[in-house]
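ingest -> validate -> predict -> emit
validate: passed (alphabet ok, no gaps, 383 aa)
predict: started
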Amino acid sequence: MLPVSFSHRCWAEIDLDALRSNLAWLRHRIGPECSLMTVVKADAYGHGLRQIAALLMQAGTDIFGVANLNEARNIRAVGRGWPILMLGACLPDETERAIKDNVMPTLSTSEEARRFSRMARKLKRTVSAHVKVDTGMGRLGAPPEQMPALLDEIKRLPNLNAVGLYTHYADGENDATFTRKQRTQFQRLAKQLTAAGHHFSHFHANNSAALLHEPQSMHNLVRPGLLVYGVLPSGRRRPAAALKRHLHPALAWKCRISLIKEIPKGTTLSYGRSYIAQRRMRVATLTAGYGDGYLRSAHREARVLIGGKQCPILGCITMDQMLADVSRVQTPNPGDEATLIGHQGKMEISANQLSQWASTVPWETLTAITHRVPRLYRGDQAA
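emit:
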């Protein structure tokens, strides 16, 4: 157990050894011929970007995937020498900064390619870019039928090299048929482009869901996000139990009891009098709320762990506090821990379980944890 400062009313514990173990398993899963891009968007999925980047550098990631240039700069502040791919589109006024910071852009259009070529010539630099094909996600990427012309143009442009080709699966955790359609389309296009003389260092499509369910489409680079942090993608497609055993959630989220009350039947609780006690109850006020990132939509079904028991949340979750039924907990006291995500004794609340209660996905649950929640690191690499 980490020592908890009195200033920590709500905090997250990050197990760096779990992250290291997850990365080792991912390396084993993809094999020695495949490179690993670790996706660290949104503050490393809420785990703390700089600390996680430092561990991943030491543990041997090949490439970092980010959403924006600020994330790239945070990685560069930790260590240099690692390639960084910006998975989001680069805005026009970000072009110069991306080139100076040596961040590989994602290109979807001729206009983007020409813009990077012009700026690279001005700066006397050469830009390495990954070109994205849209096989069904609809956000970024050129349609497959436009890709030959786009790459022909990029090939003619000075100071610009297309070193990667990739796509993104739209529903890998749910729809096997559509995912395989996307995979087939991407593989066919990759062969066509290679035959036409376009050569890439990296082909990639597999995110976390595809790594679990579509191992035959790994190509020579994969880009897991959730799996790095030991969390399974939610969805109808369930991975084999044997795979689950290799993953270790790195994040636990906790708060404390600030007050205990005994209330009679009929007492109303929280804003909007959103809960009415059906019996005499013992209620704990907890030091966490939606200001800390706890999703307000979870309140009707959510539980927390206190004293090794699952305790229902009562009434609406408020900005800084929420209420839990601790009637079944023996001698709860102010200052006691409440686990929002993680283990307590033999009980566990996973990020997936909390997401289900909130009618959302674990990506949102983890990245919603706000910056006022301190991250406390443990393990061999913890400072």
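The chain has two domains: 16-229+240-244, 251-378.
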